[in-house]
Structure formats: structure tokens, C-alpha cells
Design goal:
There is one protein chain. This protein has 39 helices and 38 strands. The protein is an alpha+beta fold. The strands form 9 sheets. Strands 22-23-26-24-25-20-21-28-27 form a 9-stranded mixed beta sheet, covered by helices on one side. Strands 5-8-3-2-9-10 form a 6-stranded parallel beta sheet. Helix 17 packs parallel to helix 19. Pfam families: DUF4470, zf-MYND. This is MYND-type domain-containing protein. Keywords: Metal-binding, Zinc, Zinc-finger.
């Protein structure tokens, strides 16, 4: 109800992802992982013979008798060590990482995460509205489990290679053996012993291993798909019943014919120029493939998108992908394969009950894989790739298939052995993502563990109530505990691109409360549909308002601005706005909500009404619907007199004793009115233009208040229960088939339900009419006119409101006994040792709606503390980060005082470690950290103390908010906080620092290494082309940075602040590192950062290789760093002397390095030492960024006893505070010293001397964010993006003549084509035989004088 809904007459399926796979745990800090061991290792451990076991027991007994005391002491030591390891967090298993996938689609993200972050224990909850997608995902996973030779699951088919799974999952047409394999597995999964009930499935091998269902309805819907696939028994055996076998065969034939017809219709749509989101004609390019090939997409210039485009069209033509050197040979081989492989892949077939389901025209098996390895030479590439003449298409296909095989093998390794708990748990739900999110919120807010119905529907096209009846969600005390309790809060929530279809506000309201209260918890979302010209405008309008304001209300810490109010409002209804107000009610401190809501409604009613189009009816007023949903959600009380005289009521309400303020109206659209609408909808959706259904109640009159619109509707299909009985309870009005798919063919009635204020129903109710119509949008313009149109009102069906045959009025929605439950934003429970409570007040500009400043009031509530503060105290604050302040209270001691810490608004400040008071001292001092949710201007922070009293004391901290557009003008704001690293308080054991804004590389050693020597010697890509590509790739400047990049130092000092200058200098150094390292090839190169005007070495970088980060589609410079500290000062002096006295090529400054890059000269064979002379601010910036570069590739554990991060961030939570002088202090902790692989580019003698002091780093180019600042674009690209489209190209010359039959351009003997049609002379042929072979077709279709000319 929170989102608009269409008729659902035609749905597009997305069984394959069209975006590259991402690692879902890339923002979760690394911790101790479960060692990845194969099942064979577990099996070998348990295969001890009885003799060996008995012998071992005898030996143990003898040892115990010989020295019993020694054994006891040893056992006690082991227990002490085990307890110490447990206290330090060094146990062998980590907690499950709970992940929620809404709109999960295929398995690419799950398999890639398991492969990329090996060893994580994952609990993944998957939700998708298309049941066939979940059915195929589970079938593939069960195939992988059964194919494991060590698994105890008995396969229902002969074991086949893992490479056979690629055509099973991605090809439309497969061999008979593969089709039979799918049918056999589907038959096994749909058997009564396996999936007859939810309990049976959970008791099976798959359920016990970790494949679970959230509710019984999801299992039922998926089982129907498996039963459909099980009919594809291509072996031709008869089951004994001849008639039944023939009937079954006929059903399968019809399903196949329907699939092939839908596939043909989709192929036709791909070349339709009228479609709104056209992806290009036959000669166009499918540019979405460039995203999958990043960052190497530009290495082959235009050839890359063209040959990927050829593979895309070949897949849609033949239903499979293959690669050949010659296009004609490829087409010939594909036709031969198609004749042989006549089997339709059951994995892409849906039963008749699913209605019209088509494959989306953008499907491509290659788009979900990272394809960069196919375009750049790597060290571990297959040897066959180096063969001469091997085309790029073959590389791409082999890479995709090999990658899929590796992902599948990683899943098999992660799957638990028999009798052991699986390392990966997956839960599946079929239904609406918004309803599923709110249902999980309802379970999380349930008190006493009693499951309650949240009154949401399973789907937007049906009236089946959503109840999570799985045993994993049963939290009632006294019930049997399950082995896999379902999570209700998640570390990672991925919403795919649901914001394009459901709206960002609706998605965040449904998912934000499910996010764990953890600094590393993250919500991901994608936007594939672009509504505005620039990405900054997209961000400004994502939440229908300023990101900083709306994001803060939603509990997110995003920042942005909104100069415009344009947004994709078609994704929202009045119920969406009411839900938003309900959600933020607990976060917004308002004196009187009733007065506030009345003021909001008054502003809405003051807006000028929209003018109707032409002679159409008045535009509907949606304010009554907004009032109804505000009342239902408990935000605003709708006053209503329940005792209405019966003679003033509608016929449907005359038997009611009491009438509620809001009621449900259900309109039954008769089946004979639907076929015309169905045809119009099919044509509109064929062009990619969806439409939405809404209702309206029209009253006599022509003013703007005579028509009330209702957009929050629920659509279903069914029949009235009894034609003679018009009024029934909400649970028994209609006979609704839960499996009935949406359809407008006239097979059943269309049921549309919506909530209406009772005052609208009773005011002129006997003369009012209710109608079902399409919402007016540009996509529904074709519905108004033309033959068979709906007219100006876009009316599907209209009837009087008192027509009790077609209009049913109930208290609640059909099949429901309550209102959909919507919860407020959850608040933390105050701890018992409460010391203070905080409230943050934001000042908002009236014209723009942006937050200009934040004021935090910290009110002390402890009586003992207030009595101490009453004697007088002073307060001061200092900056530790652009968001955090360290506040110090000082006074005379009269009682004990405790530290406080707070990181969230409107939450209590808990007590932490007691402040130490020196004995005999006359004053006390205590500190605590306070963090704001937005970046603040620390230069204008103001701290004010309130009145001093024994019962009430508070301090108030006010800071202006830094906007993205004015961040550059803040001179002292720390630009080094690009990659903040924090240590959440209270500290965990072991401590786990968290890096924001930079993804982790949990398995950095698995990332492919670019082989620079191979590129030097190869022709594709050429070395010059690779350098040009790397030069463009490392241009990481924003638009303003590029303007000042080449300016003189004096100009930069006058026009740029210290922070801007240091940020620009830092980006130049990173770019120089990449370019010089690539140019040095295998020669030794060292990067030295020193102060400007001095040669005192501050830090030294030893880089080892350039890697491809496949998860984020970027490059990573892998190496080590040594930073000058008090402990390493002497070692740095030794290195400084070695650099000066050695026989090396010295680049004395960054300018020399840039000159070398600009000229592109090859470096000689000498070792290279490149000096980066920079400012102290830039050096400080390096030191503040280094912890994030180190933490992202960490493979070790932090020691809480000696970790410098713990001692530095113990009171602030910030790893690198801004106010600490780091000249001689330790920037990086010593926990990771020496934990890095050997570097062949460093002399062995030097390496052994410095290895134990080095720390591993992974440096990536710091790309700008296009949502915040304008990126730099070359002039040619900027011209294309910002100027008007170029004029059409001049007409081409006549096409080159080819043989109409065989497409040859020459005769077999090399001569020109001279054979033509003897009648018209219009077609040319290479031989007489070709002319005869094509004569019948040519005469019928093309020849103007032919007897069979088509009219």
C-alpha cells in the first residue's frame, strides 16, 4: 500500500543480474575467521579405525598412570590458556554476519561474497517477488551440494562436471542430458518426502545444512515451480497411464510454446525504436557491458563494447553464448547446436498460473561477472590466453565460465560437512520486499516472544496475509529451539535497485530499523534509472528533500543538498508520506503533534490545484486519503461521530452498530470489462512504460473538491463468495485463489481495495460514484484516445457507490483483521547507570530546507553528579575529528565522577571508566566524547554551560554544519578525514578498528596481479595503449582541482586553503606512485615522503605489485610503508644515508616525477628513489589516511595490551585525532609489523633490515564522488554530455552488393557478382545455384513482378 501498484498483466523476470557482482561484506572489518577446510579434511579426521582408537586410549591410560600429577598441572595450564584466549576473543569461530537481500535476484552476490571473503560465517536472508528466481537459485545450490563427492546427500542423477552448471543457470536452450538433469533434481525437490511441508523441508539434508524457508507459503510457491520443471521428462518413458502421459506431454508442449513465444516477443522488443528505455538496435552497442569490464574497459577502445555487444545479440538469437573467430562460422555452429539442442531449459520456464512472464530484454549472462581480467595481462592467466590469434570473445567466455566454477567450488567448501553446522545459512522468502521488512520489524518489536500478524499482504497482487510461520521465527517461550534462529537485525542490508521501482523513502523506512546498532553496519542501494541531468541532482532528489535533513530523520548520516524539489513522485502515495511521519515521530521532538500535522495539512491544501488536461474530469484531491492513513498509523486522530443515523448511511452500512472513522472500500470490476484494458496494458508495457491503478470517488459538482483520489490500493483477483449475500466479514468476502496470477483476460474479477475516511462515504454517498482508473502520467497518454481508448478520465470501471453488487465496504482490508503495523524508529533502552541524556536540535533554513547548524544539549540526570556540579565547574571542548569533540569538565571534588560517552542523538550517555582523582587534590577533572551525525565547522563551535543547580545541570554545544558546496571554503576542516578510522566504544576484545568510506580487501592475496612485463611484450593491449589508459585512469581530480592543478605555487597559496592544497598534493603523489611503478616494471623503486625544503625522510613506501580489485572494479597498489617515529628514527636515518650514497636514479621532487610521467620516457635499469617534497599539512594528511590503508588489508589481530590504537583512542574513539601532534608519535600500531609477503623489488639485505618494522598497505586512487562535487571530464567528453546532441550524420553511399543467398561479396573465382534475377534484375547472386535457391522466396516477398507478391 505504500507504493503504487499496476495491474500486473505483464511482468518481466530478471533471472540474471545486469550489474557486476559485489562483495556484501566489503565494509565489515576483518576479524578472526574460521579456517577454510574441505569436507575431505573433516572426513579424514573422523576415519579412525577401532584398533587405532583402542590403541590410543591405552597409551593415554598408561601416560596418566605414570604421571598423574603432571597431567593435572598440564590440564590446568591448558584451561587457563583457553580461558585467556576466550577473554581476549581469540576463539576459533566468529559470530554469524547477518545479511538481508531485498530483491536478491540471482546468486552472483552471494557466491562472490563467499568466494571473495572466504572463511566468513554468513546468515543470509533473501527476498524476491518472483518465485521462479528463488526456485532456480535453490535448485542450483542443491546441485552443488549433491555434486560434492563427500556429501552424504544421494544425487538423483549421474555426477557431472561443475562446468555443466553454467549452461544450466544461464542458457535458454540446453542439451537433452542437461534438461533431464534439471527435471530429475526438480522431481527430487518437489517430492512429498522433501517439500510436502515446512517441517519436512527443514528436516531434510538441505534444511539441516542451512537452506531454510521463512514461511510455508514461500515453500509452497517454490514447490509449484519445481513441479512444473519436473514435467520436463525428456527421456520419453511412460508412467503406465497412457492418457495421463499424453496429457502431461501436452501441458509441457504448451508451456514450451508459451516460453518460446514470449522469448520471440522480447527479441522483437529489443529492436523496437519506440520503447522508452531502448538499449540500442541491432547495430547499436549494449553499454552496460562496459561496467562489468571496468577498470580495463578502455584498454581496447571501441573494440571492447562491440565484441561484447556481438556476444549479447548472439545470446538472444540462439539462446546460448559461444565464441568463434568468424561470425559466419559462429552462426553456422550455433544453428547446428540449436538443431541438436532442441530442449528448452526448464530453469527459465514458469507455469501457466504465473500469467504473462517474459525475460527482460536486458538479460546477458556476462554482465554479472568481473571481466577486467580478459583485457589486461595477469600473472595467473591461463597459458592458452597467450596464443596468437585468440580473440577477446573467447577470453571473456572462458573467464566467465571459469569464474562461475570457482564461485561454485567456494560454496562447496563453505558448506558444512555432514553432522556439522554449515558456514553459510540461507533463508528464502517469496513476496513483497516492503511488506517483508515491516513484518521483520513487527517480530523485532514483539514482546514476550508471541508472534503477531502484522497485517501485511504477501504480494501487491493478492489478498494472502503475510505470516512468518517458520520455526526459525518462533520466539515464544517454552517452544522447541531451532538450530538456526532467524536474525531480526542485520549488519548488511542490500536493496539492489528497488529504489527505482519502490522509492528510496519507502525502502529506507522498511529497512533502517533492521540495521544493527554498529558502526560498521551498512545499507546498500543501487540506482539504474536516471531521472535528472547530473548525479548531484539525483542525490539531491533521492529522498524528496535535502539528504542531510531527511537522512538525519531516518537515522542515516548522509549529507547533501536539494536546490530543487523535482523527484520521482510516481513511486509514492499519500500512505508513503503518512508512514514517513509515523517513522520519524520518535526522533522529532515536537510539542504537539496534532497542531503540527494540522499545519502540514493546511500547507498542502493551500497549494494550487493541478489543472485537468483538456476536457477531462477534475484532478482528484488526495488530502482525504492522507488524513485516513495518518489516522490509521496513529500520527493524527481523525474525529468522527460513530452514531450516524441509519437513514443517512449507504445500503452497505445500515446494519452496522458503530461506524469507525476510516473504512475499506473494495470495488469488484467485472470480468467482461477487463480484456480491453488488458490489451492496452500489454501494448503499453511492451514499450517499457508501466502504469498504475488508483481509485476515485466523485461527487456532484465541478470544483476541485468534487473528486477524491486514492492511490494506496491493493489489487487482487477472485470471485464474490455468494452472489446472494453482499455483506460479509473481512475474512470471507471473496474467494481468492492465492496462486492466481494477475491477468486481464477476463477469466476472473479484478478486486481493488483502498481505505477511505467515513466522512467521504457518507457525504452525498447516494449520489456519488466510485471508479477504478489509471493514474495520469505521460505513459498513459495513449489510453485516452484512439480506437478502444479509455477516454479522458482513463476510467477502467465506474459504478455508483451504493451498488452493493460491485462495491463492498468493510472495516479492514479483505482477509485482514487489522491495520498494517508500522513501527516508529527504535530507541535504545537507557542503561541502569544513566549519567546524562542528549538531545540534538537542528536549525533548518526556511527557503531550502537544509540543516544549517546543530545544537546538542547534554543534560546530567545523576543526583550525585548534579550535587558535585552545583559547587561550580568549568567546561571546555577540543576537536578530535570533524564530527567528534572531547569535552572536559573541571571542578572541586565532593563525590565520585564518571566518564561519559555518546554517539547518537536523543540517547542516554552511559557511564564508562571512572575518572581518576589524585589523592589530596583540590580539583577533579573528567572527559567524555560527543559526536555529531554530520560534518561540522569546528572553527565556530560554541560551548555554553547552563544554570547550576543540585537537580538540573546541562551544557550545550552548537556547531555549524559543513555543506558539500562550502566544504572547500573551510580552511581548517580536516580534508584528511576522507577515510576516517574509528575505534567504537566501549572497546571490544580484541579491538576492531573500523574504516569508513573505503572497502576492505579481506583476501588481498587472491586478487589478480597485473603482469607488466607481459604487457610490454604483447601487442594487445600494447604498452603505449596501457600507459595511456593508466594515465587517464589515475586522473582522479575533481573539476576545481583540475583548474588549480598546474598553477604556480604562489597562485595556489593565494587561492587555495591549506587543506585544499594538501589534498591536491596528496592526490598528485598517489597518481605519481601508480604511473612510476608501472613504468619501472620489475626494477627497484622506492617512494620517499619528506618535508619541503628538507631531505628528512618522514615515510618510505616499498610497492610490490598492482592488483585488480574485482569487487570494486579498481586498481590497488600493494606494498609496505615505514613511518618515522621515536622507535624508527635511527632506522630512517640509515635509509636516508643509503639513498644518498647509493647508485640510484633520483627524482628529487614531485615536479620531476610529473615531468617524467608527462614525457613518458622509459626509466633506465638503475634502482629508482622518488622523493615527494611536500608541506607539513600534506604529511599530516598522509599520517591520518594511512590507518585506513593498513586496516583494509589487515590479516592479523590487534593485541589489546600493546596496541597503540587502544591507548590513543581510549577516550575519543578516533584512531588519529586531529589535535594530536604526530611528529614523533606512532601513527600506525605495531600489531601488524612484519605481517606481509616478501617483496622482490627490495634488495634482500635492506629487506631483512627493515622487514620487522614494515606494515602492509593497499593504496587505491581516491576518486571523487559525483553526487557531491563535479568530476573532471576531458573537453570531448564534457562536450558530449553537456551540449545539444550533434546533427544526424550525412546519408551514406549505396550499400555494398552481396549475394542475396550466401552473403558473399565476390564470386568463388574472385570476380564481381554478375548473376541477377531474370525478372526484375534487382538482386545479385554469386552463382546460378544461389539464384535458383533464393528464387522462390524472392519471387514471393521482393520481386515486384512476381506472381506471389506480398500485398
Amino acid at each position: 500500500m505504500l507504493t503504487p501498484v499496476g495491474t500486473g498483466v505483464l511482468r518481466y523476470s530478471y533471472p540474471m543480474g545486469d550489474t557486476p557482482a559485489v562483495c556484501l561484506t566489503q565494509d565489515i572489518p576483518p576479524s578472526f575467521r574460521v579456517p577454510v577446510r574441505s569436507r575431505a579434511h573433516h572426513e579424514e579426521e573422523g576415519q579412525e579405525t577401532e584398533a587405532e582408537e583402542q590403541k590410543r586410549e591405552e597409551q593415554d591410560g598408561e601416560e596418566k598412570e605414570e604421571d598423574e600429577n603432571e597431567g593435572k598441572e598440564k590440564k590446568e595450564k591448558e584451561n587457563e590458556k583457553s580461558q585467556k584466549d576466550t577473554d581476549n576473543g581469540n576463539n576459533q569461530e566468529e559470530d554469524l554476519i547477518n545479511i538481508l537481500l531485498l530483491g536478491c535476484g540471482d546468486l552472483r552476490k552471494i557466491l562472490f561474497t563467499i568466494h571473495h571473503d572466504a572463511g566468513r560465517r554468513l546468515d543470509i536472508t533473501c527476498c524476491d517477488n518472483e518465485r521462479s528466481i528463488i526456485a532456480r537459485n535453490i535448485l542450483l545450490l542443491t546441485l552443488l551440494i549433491d555434486m560434492d563427492s563427500k556429501s552424504q546427500t544421494q544425487p538423483s542423477f549421474p555426477l557431472s562436471p561443475i562446468h555443466d552448471l553454467f549452461p544450466i543457470y544461464y542458457h535458454f536452450y540446453v542439451t537433452p542430458r542437461v534438461a533431464s538433469l534439471v527435471a530429475s533434481q526438480a522431481r527430487k525437490l518437489s517430492s512429498d518426502a522433501m517439500s510436502s511441508s515446512l517441517q519436512a523441508w527443514h528436516a531434510s539434508t538441505y534444511g539441516l545444512g542451512g537452506l531454510r524457508f521463512c514461511d510455508s507459503h514461500s515453500l509452497l510457491r517454490v514447490r509449484e515451480i519445481w513441479q512444473c520443471w519436473a514435467r520436463f521428462n525428456d527421456d520419453g518413458d511412460d508412467d503406465g497411464d497412457g492418457d495421463g502421459h499424453e496429457t502431461k506431454k501436452a501441458v509441457v508442449t504448451d508451456i514450451k510454446a508459451k516460453f518460446q513465444a514470449n522469448l520471440a516477443a522480447t527479441r522483437e522488443m529489443k529492436t523496437d525504436d519506440e520503447r522508452v528505455d531502448n538499449t540500442g538496435g541491432r547495430d547499436g552497442l549494449v553499454y552496460t557491458a562496459i561496467r562489468s569490464a571496468a577498470p580495463a574497459a578502455a584498454l581496447l577502445d571501441v573494440d571492447m563494447p562491440r565484441h561484447l555487444n556481438e556476444l549479447h545479440w548472439r545470446f538472444w538469437k540462439f539462446g546460448r553464448i559461444s565464441s568463434f573467430h568468424d561470425t559466419r562460422a559462429a552462426n553456422k555452429a550455433a544453428r547446428a547446436d540449436k538443431k541438436e539442442d532442441t530442449r528448452v531449459n526448464p530453469m527459465f520456464v514458469t507455469p501457466e498460473s504465473d500469467g504473462h512472464v517474459r525475460m527482460h530484454w536486458g538479460l546477458d549472462p556476462l554482465l554479472g561477472f568481473p571481466l577486467a581480467e580478459a583485457y589486461v595481462r595477469t600473472e595467473d592467466e591461463p597459458e592458452i590466453w597467450a596464443a596468437e590469434g585468440l580473440n577477446a570473445q573467447t577470453k571473456v567466455l572462458s573467464l566467465a565460465m571459469g569464474t562461475f566454477a570457482h564461485w561454485c567450488q567456494s560454496f562447496q567448501q563453505a558448506w558444512g560437512a555432514a553432522g556439522r553446522r554449515s558456514g553459510v545459512v540461507m533463508r528464502w522468502f517469496v513476496g513483497d520486499a516492503i511488506a517483508f521488512g515491516h513484518s521483520l520489524q513487527g517480530l523485532a518489536n514483539t514482546r514476550g516472544g508471541i508472534r503477531k500478524n502484522s497485517h501485511w499482504y504477501h504480494s501487491r497482487h493478492g489478498f494472502l496475509s503475510l505470516v512468518l510461520d517458520g520455526e526459525d521465527y518462533n520466539m515464544k517461550p517454552g517452544t522447541s529451539r531451532t538450530s538456526y534462529p532467524a536474525p531480526l537485525s542485520f549488519m548488511v542490508i542490500d536493496t539492489s535497485n528497488l529504489t527505482d521501482d519502490l522509492g528510496a523513502l519507502n525502502v529506507l523506512i522498511a529497512t533502517s530499523p533492521l540495521l544493527k546498532n554498529n558502526a560498521a553496519a551498512t545499507i546498500y542501494t543501487e540506482m539504474l534509472t536516471r531521472y535528472h541531468r547530473t548525479y548531484k541532482q539525483e542525490a539531491d532528489n533521492l529522498l524528496c528533500g535535502p539528504l542531510s535533513t531527511v537522512g538525519l530523520l531516518l537515522g542515516d548520516m548522509d549529507d547533501g543538498g536539494a536546490p530543487e524539489r523535482r523527484s520521482n513522485h510516481k513511486l509514492y502515495t499519500p500512505a508513503s508520506f503518512a508512514a514517513f511521519l509515523k517513522f520519524i515521530k520518535s526522533r522529532a521532538q515536537v510539542d504537539d503533534w496534532t497542531v503540527t500535522i494540522e499545519a502540514v495539512l493546511a500547507l498542502i491544501e493551500q497549494e494550487p490545484p493541478r489543472q485537468p488536461h483538456g476536457d477531462s474530469e477534475p484532478v482528484a484531491d488526495y488530502t482525504p486519503e492522507l488524513r485516513a492513513w495518518l489516522h490509521l498509523f496513529g500520527v493524527y486522530k481523525l474525529e468522527w461521530n460513530r452514531l450516524v443515523p441509519r437513514w443517512e448511511r449507504l445500503w452497505q452500512l445500515r446494519t452496522w452498530k458503530s461506524i469507525p472513522p476510516v473504512m475499506c472500500v473494495t470495488v469488484v470490476v467485472p470480468q467482461e470489462a477487463l480484456p480491453k484494458v488488458g490489451r492496452l496494458e500489454m501494448e503499453n508495457l511492451r514499450l517499457g512504460r508501466p502504469s498504475f491503478v488508483e481509485c476515485a470517488i466523485s461527487k456532484p459538482g465541478v470544483d476541485d473538491k468534487s473528486c477524491h483520489g486514492f492511490a494506496a490500493v491493493q489489487v487482487g483477483y477472485g470471485w464474490p463468495q455468494n452472489s446472494n449475500t453482499r455483506i460479509r466479514g473481512p475474512g470471507s468476502i471473496f474467494i481468492v485463489d492465492p496462486a492466481r496470477a494477475p491477468g486481464l483476460e477476463g477469466e476472473c474479477h479484478l478486486l481493488v481495495s483502498f481505505m477511505v475516511p467515513t466522512s467521504v462515504l457518507l457525504r452525498d454517498g447516494k449520489t456519488s460514484t466510485v471508479k477504478v482508473q489509471f493514474r495520469r502520467t505521460p505513459s498513459t497518454a495513449d489510453y485516452e484516445g484512439g480506437q478502444g481508448g479509455l477516454g479522458p478520465g482513463l476510467t477502467i470501471y465506474e459504478t455508483p457507490l451504493h451498488n452493493y453488487d460491485q462495491v463492498v465496504i468493510t472495516q479492514y482490508m479483505p482477509k485482514q483483521r487489522g491495520i498494517p503495523t508500522l513501527h516508529e524508529f527504535p530507541t535504545s533502552v537507557p542503561p541502569p547507570d544513566l549519567q546524562a541524556r542528549t538531545t540534538i536540535v537542528g536549525s533548518i533554513a526556511n527557503t531550502t530546507g537544509k540543516i544549517t547548524s546543530l545544537a546538542a544539549r547534554i543534560r546530567f540526570t545523576c543526583p550525585e553528579l548534579n550535587s558535585r556540579l552545583a559547587n561550580g565547574y568549568t567546561a571546555r571542548c577540543r576537536v578530535v575529528s570533524p564530527c567528534a569533540f572531547l569535552i572536559t569538565l573541571k571542578g572541586t571534588p565532593t563525590a565520585r565522577l564518571c566518564n561519559m560517552n555518546s554517539t547518537k542523538s536523543d540517547e542516554p550517555v552511559p557511564r564508562s571508566i571512572e575518572a581518576s582523582i589524585p589523592q589530596g587534590g583540590r580539583t577533579w577533572e573528567s572527559t567524555f566524547t560527543f559526536s555529531f551525525p554530520l560534518l561540522s565547522d569546528v572553527t565556530e563551535a560554541e560551548l555554553v554551560t547552563g544554570p547550576v543547580s543540585p537537580a538540573n545541570n546541562f551544557i550545550e554545544l552548537t556547531v555549524p554544519v559543513i555543506r558539500p558546496e562550502n566544504f572547500r571554503r573551510i580552511a581548517t576542516a580536516s580534508p584528511s578525514w576522507i577515510y576516517p578510522a574509528v575505534l567504537p566504544l566501549p572497546l571490544s576484545s580484541p579491538p576492531v578498528p573500523i574504516s569508513w568510506s573505503i572497502p576492505y580487501l579481506p583476501c588481498i592475496d587472491k586478487l589478480p596481479v597485473i603482469d607488466l612485463e607481459k604487457i610490454r611484450k604483447s601487442s594487445e593491449p600494447s604498452w603505449d595503449g596501457f600507459k595511456r589508459w593508466l594515465d587517464n585512469y589515475t586522473r582522479i581530480y575533481s573539476d576545481w582541482e583540475h583548474r588549480y592543478m598546474n598553477a604556480r605555487a604562489s597562485v595556489q597559496e593565494n587561492l587555495l586553503s591549506a587543506g585544499e592544497s594538501s589534498c591536491l598534493h596528496w592526490k598528485k603523489m598517489v597518481r605519481a606512485m601508480f604511473m612510476l611503478f608501472a613504468g619501472a616494471a620489475k626494477r627497484q623503486i622506492t617512494f620517499v615522503v619528506c618535508r619541503k625544503g628538507q631531505m628528512r625522510v618522514e615515510m618510505v613506501f616499498y610497492m610490490s605489485c598492482v592488483r585488480l580489485d574485482m569487487a570494486n572494479r579498481c586498481l590497488v597498489l600493494d606494498g609496505a610503508v615505514l613511518v618515522r617515529t621515536a622507535e624508527t628514527s635511527r632506522l630512517m636515518d640509515v635509509l636516508e644515508k643509503m639513498f644518498k650514497d647509493g647508485d640510484v636514479l633520483t627524482l628529487a621532487s614531485l615536479a620531476d616525477a610529473e615531468a617524467r610521467i608527462h614525457v613518458g620516457a622509459e626509466l633506465d635499469t638503475k634502482p629508482i628513489v622518488c622523493y615527494f617534497q611536500t608541506t607539513p599539512d600534506a604529511i599530516q594528511m598522509w599520517k591520518e589516511i594511512l590507518p585506513a590503508y593498513v586496516e583494509r588489508c589487515r590479516t592479523w589481530e590487534h593485541d589489546p595490551e600493546r596496541c597503540e590504537y587502544v591507548h590513543r583512542a581510549g577516550e575519543t574513539g578516533v584512531v588519529s585525532p586531529m589535535d594530536v601532534d604526530e611528529d614523533e608519535s606512532s601513527v600506525l600500531c605495531s600489531c601488524g609489523n612484519g605481517q606481509l609477503p616478501d617483496n622482490e623489488r627490495v634488495p634482500s639485505k635492506v629487506w631483512e633490515m627493515i622487514k620487522r618494522r614494515l606494515v602492509r598497505v593497499a593504496i587505491s586512487p581516491p576518486f571523487g564522488c559525483a553526487f557531491v562535487e563535479k568530476p573532471y571530464l576531458p573537453e570531448d567528453i564534457a562536450t558530449v554530455n553537456n551540449q545539444a546532441p550533434p546533427p544526424p550524420p550525412p546519408p551514406r553511399g549505396p550499400p555494398k552488393a552481396v549475394c542475396r543467398n550466401c552473403k558473399r561479396e565476390k564470386r568463388k573465382d574472385g570476380g564481381e557478382l554478375d548473376q541477377t534475377c531474370p525478372v526484375c534484375g534487382g538482386m545479385k547472386y554469386c552463382s546460378r545455384n544461389c539464384q535458383r535457391a533464393d528464387s522462390r522466396r524472392h519471387k514471393k516477398e521482393e520481386c515486384p513482378r512476381g506472381k506471389g507478391k506480398k500485398k
